[in-house]
Amino acid sequence: MKIVILSDIHGNLEALNSILHFLDHEKIDQIICLGDIVGYGANPNECIELIRTTCDLALIGNHDHAALGHLDISYFNPYAKKSVIWTGSVLKDDNRQYLENLPLTAERPEATYVHSTPHQPRDWSYIFTVYDARLNFKFFTTQVCFIGHSHQPVFIVLSPQGEIFVQPPPHLELKEGYRYIINVGSVGQPRDGNPDSSVVIFDLAEGSIRLVRLPYDIAQVQAKMQQAQIHPFLIERLAYGR
Ligand code: ZN
Prior knowledge:
Layout: E1 2-6, H1 13-24, E2 30-33, H2 44-54, E3 57-58, H3 62-67, H4 78-90, H5 93-100, E4 105-107, E5 112-114, H6 130-137, E6 144-147, E7 154-158, E8 164-167, E9 171-173, E10 179-183, E11 197-203, E12 208-214, H7 218-227, H8 232-240
Parallel strand pairs: 1-2, 2-3, 5-6, 6-10
Antiparallel strand pairs: 1-11, 4-5, 7-8, 7-10, 9-12, 11-12
Bound molecules: zinc ion.
């Protein structure tokens, strides 16, 4: 069984299509989306419709929640705020309904899934430090937890002796007694200095996790965003992956 985990599409249809096209050629059993389908990008409805038809499970992210009008966006940066309001205004009713029904977390036999953190999924906090990681390992019981939200792919390992360290992607073999928090990065707005889309393949038979980076037509996305009058900062950052 192979499961693909993706996150943070942010209305970037070209990036999502590039991932789905790649997956056509891989033997994949399930696709799981960790949220932030919308926000920032020019194609929120199209991205929701693709996620609806291709994913076996999808969770809600803070931008999805905000676009529905359920989140106080006063702490969002001005670009995020404007794009959330725009996204909310163009969402079709059935897509809005779909987002409304997405769960916050999912615990399945093979792993736990959440957009932000297993500790406080509703607070939309981040796992950036060893302290954050140690705390969060206490809030799920499976060997692996997949997260998104920071747009930066990271493999965090907890050893049987209680040490926490980061294993550089792209490949990880699961080892008995070890536990893992896997940040799958972002499909539509990577922020780790690499503009290519990010996605993770979890091979249950092999007991392995692989990070895949895929290029897409950034110029085409930027042209569309210009037409939608999205702020230049959000348009330019795609090219740098920042
Ligand atoms: Zn996001």
